[in-house]
Design a protein that fits this description.
heterodimer, A: alpha+beta, 3 helices, B: about 0% strand
Chain lengths: ~230, ~300
């Protein structure tokens, strides 16, 4: 009996330490899996969806409109790069200024679309690409406010979008007209486009027709070099 | 823990048991909580979604007054919180049924005849007052106004933004994998059973030691699930959700918190099960030691 007890006592540390060993082992495997898995693809979308990279005080519901100071003067001594970093905006943030000299348009662009933001400027749909990254960046505004002259843009007209992270110039490639149900110009694309659209003007009631322009990039100037 | 080989086998099977348990907990919560329409419907009352949607629509229609010329009073009688609640519930039911593959079409088609009559009457009065000819352009404007109003209401009632996710191409891949959640639960529980049996088999000389390994596996799996879930809840991580439109924010964050809460509850159950396994192990092991000691004493 004494021999048995001694044997048991010697096994006791093993019984107590084994769960700890298992915790370290499985925790280690999980950390390894995390570092090996291509989480960076998801991370970008998590950052956009949950504002994790910006650490804003978004602890309450309700729209948080944030105005930014965006440099639209472009001093010649400012160093720029052809490839660079993008700062992802949060919903309700003014993240760009859109300038179209041909129609004398200079309007703030907010990230996200809702009634409050449309009152303040043009709005970028959150499911479209961010200015400066590959894909279709879709911006719209009311026809009776900021995009009232949008239909006057012609092929070849230049549009510049200033952001906190760079200055991007586009040229109008085609003028577009589509039904609001037709998503062909608003859909995700592999090519880089800037699509601007608004409602077709109508005296009373809302129109089903949408008018606008699709632009292709001419130059990109990032303020921070890509890591 | 008699032999090193038995111990190593125990460690290997327990590690596999831990991952199976984590997968089982995750798949179980997704299948029985996150995809359970009744559980999601609770959010409508809990988060006062109908009141929030009503407020959002009121703002939207009042703002639209500037662009469309249609006063808010035209819509007012058709978008009370009580009228919106069944539409929100139907949108949720349809969206989750679509994700599970139980509904072929995404979106709801409610009866807006009352609203359409109001819009029709407004246009008619406007045409009479302003001598507008009732031609095809007039008919088109009336039709467009009715469609736009119904679309605004349907979009607002789609609190989880299923239609937006579908447009962005996110819903189709999700729809492909989500129906597999049920099979995932089954596969995970089969794996858990298999590794538990292997642990008993590896310790056939002292079967109660299998209980010790199972208890350890379930305890660690529960801790690995519970710690991040508690962190997510306590830090209010989901409150950073970018879309701050009141009803979408309330619905999405409420949904995610309900998922993490379910994970915590599952993990607590796992911990209790582990404690039970340890107690049983201790009891059976003590009995075995006594029996062996008695046998030796008899000899």
């Amino acid at each position: 009996m004494a021999e048995q007890e001694t044997k048991e006592r010697s096994s006791l540390p093993a019984y107590l330490l084994t769960p700890l060993l298992l915790l370290l082992l499985t925790g280690g495997i999980l950390v390894l899996c995390y570092s090996l898995a291509p989480v960076h693809y998801v991370q970008k979308y998590l950052n956009i969806a949950f504002m994790d990279n910006l650490k804003t005080n978004g602890t309450t519901s309700g729209l948080h409109i944030r105005e930014n100071e965006i440099d639209t003067e472009q001093k010649s001594d400012r160093k720029t790069y052809d490839e660079g970093n993008i700062i992802y905006p949060t919903f309700g943030e003014q993240y760009a200024v859109l300038n179209a000299p041909a129609i004398d348009l200079n309007v703030s662009v907010y990230y996200g679309v809702n009634a409050d933001l449309l009152e303040r400027g043009a709005c970028q749909t959150t499911q479209s690409a961010i200015i400066g990254e590959k894909g279709n960046a879709v911006i719209d505004a009311h026809v009776n406010t900021y995009f009232s002259e949008l239909s006057k843009l012609k092929i070849g007209d230049e549009i510049t979008v200033y952001t906190k992270y760079g200055c991007f110039t586009y040229k109008v490639k085609e003028t577009i007209e589509f039904n609001k149900q037709d998503k062909q110009y608003l859909a995700v694309t592999k090519e880089e486009y800037l699509t601007l659209y608004t409602c077709a003007p109508q005296v009373i009631g809302s129109s089903d027709r949408r008018i606008g322009v699709r632009c292709e990039p001419v130059s990109k100037k990032y303020y921070e070099q890509a890591e | 823990m008699k032999k090193t080989s038995t111990y190593i086998a125990g460690v290997i099977f327990t590690v596999l048991l831990i991952f199976s348990c984590i997968f089982a907990m995750g798949a179980g919560v997704v299948r029985f909580r996150m995809l359970d329409t009744d559980a999601v419907q609770e959010l409508v009352t809990k988060k006062e979604l109908s009141e929030k949607v009503h407020a959002a629509l009121e703002t939207e229609f009042r703002t639209a007054e500037n662009t469309t010329g249609i006063p808010f009073s035209v819509y007012e009688g058709s978008i009370s919180a009580d009228q919106l609640e069944p539409l929100i519930r139907e949108s949720i039911t349809n969206g989750f049924a679509y994700l599970r593959g139980d509904a072929a079409i995404l979106g709801i088609q409610p009866d807006f005849s009352e609203l359409n009559d109001r819009i029709g009457n407004f246009f008619s009065e406007y045409a009479d007052k302003n001598n507008v000819i009732r031609d095809s352009a007039y008919d088109e404007a009336v039709r467009a106004a009715k469609e736009s109003a119904s679309l605004r209401i349907r979009t607002a009632c789609d609190v989880f933004r299923f239609s937006m996710l579908a447009d962005a191409g996110v819903l189709e891949p999700a729809k492909t994998y989500i129906p597999w959640a049920g099979y995932g639960v089954f596969a995970a529980f089969a794996a858990v059973t298999l590794f538990a049996l292997l642990l008993f088999f590896a310790n056939y000389q002292e079967p109660e030691t299998g209980l010790y390994w199972i208890g350890s596996g379930v305890l660690i799996a529960s801790l690995l699930v519970m710690i991040p879930s508690v962190w997510l809840q306590k830090t209010g991580w989901f409150d950073r959700f970018a879309v701050k439109t009141d009803h979408t924010f309330a619905a999405v964050t409420g949904y995610l918190y309900s998922g993490t809460h379910a994970l915590i509850v599952t993990a607590v159950c796992g911990i209790l099960f582990a404690v039970l396994c340890y107690l049983l192990f201790w009891l059976l092991h003590s009995l075995r030691l006594r029996k062996t000691a008695l046998k030796k004493a008899k000899h």
